[in-house]
Structure formats: C-alpha cells, structure tokens
Amino acid sequence: MAIPWLVALKVIPWGDVIEHAPTVLNAARKLLDRSKAPPAGTTAPVPLDLGDAPPTLGELKNRLIEARQLIDQQAAVQAQMAQTLTELAEQNARLVGAVDLLRKRTRLLLWAVAVLAVGVVGLFAR
C-alpha cells in the first residue's frame, strides 16, 4: 500500500513546488488584502424590469433589503474563502519547507550510509 505513495512522491517535481510556494503565498495574501479593501468604484445599478405595472414602494424596499442581505452574505463567503485560501497557502509553504528539510536530511543520511558501507567493506577486506 505504501508503494503507490512513494511513486507519487517521486513523480512530484519538488523543486518546482518549492520554487513556486512563495509566489502562491504572496498571491493569497494579495487576494486577502484586496478582499478587505473597499471597492474603488461603484457600478451602475441594473434597471428593474417593470413589466405592466410598476412595483410599489414597499415591494422595492423589500427587494432592496433582500439584495443587500444577499450581497452581505456573498461578501462574508468571499472573505471566508480568501481567509481559507491564505491559510492553505501558508500551510502549503510550511509543508514545502518541511519536505525540503526532509529531502536534505535524507541525502545526508544516504551519504552517511554510503561512507559507513565503504568503511565496513574496507574492514572486511583486511
């Protein structure tokens, strides 16, 4: 069961992942900052389809309240998604750093094993 995971880990271009992790983190932070900033301009409202009879003032007020609630909900969802994206990017950056450290330690361990193997072969050769 562990063999497919090892194959998958070998296939991943870790150098590229490590290289692009800071870029992903910065992009996520910019997205979060942009979502917190107030909008620069306002867009023109979409005209209502009046149909046969114009809506009453009460209907317009209810539509406005509903639209505002939907906008507030969407803004909250967007802020939450931006926060989640930032957290995921930070976790990814930490994960990539940990994997890089493990790769370096593995190389060091392989070199140490190779030196020890040469030493053991040298001892048995005497």
What does this structure look like?
With 126 residues, the chain is mostly helical. It is built from 3 helices and no strands. Helix 2 packs antiparallel against helix 3. The protein is rod-shaped. It starts with a helix and ends with a helix.
The proportion of strand residues reads: under 5%
| Percent helix | over 70%
Mean pLDDT: 80
Beta-strand segment tally: 0
- Helix/strand-derived category reads mainly alpha
Number of helices: 3
CA radius of gyration: 29 Å
Following the backbone from N to C, one meets helices and strands in this order, namely HHH
The largest β sheet comes out as: none
Query: Are there runs of 5+ residues with pLDDT below 50, and where?
Result: none
Shape: rod-shaped
Distance between the termini: 43 Å
Defining traits:
126 residues, single chain, rod-shaped
What does the secondary structure layout of this molecule look like, with pairings?
Layout: H1 2-11, H2 14-36, H3 57-125
Helix pairs in contact: 2-3
What's a concise summary of this model?
By secondary structure, the chain is mainly alpha-helical.
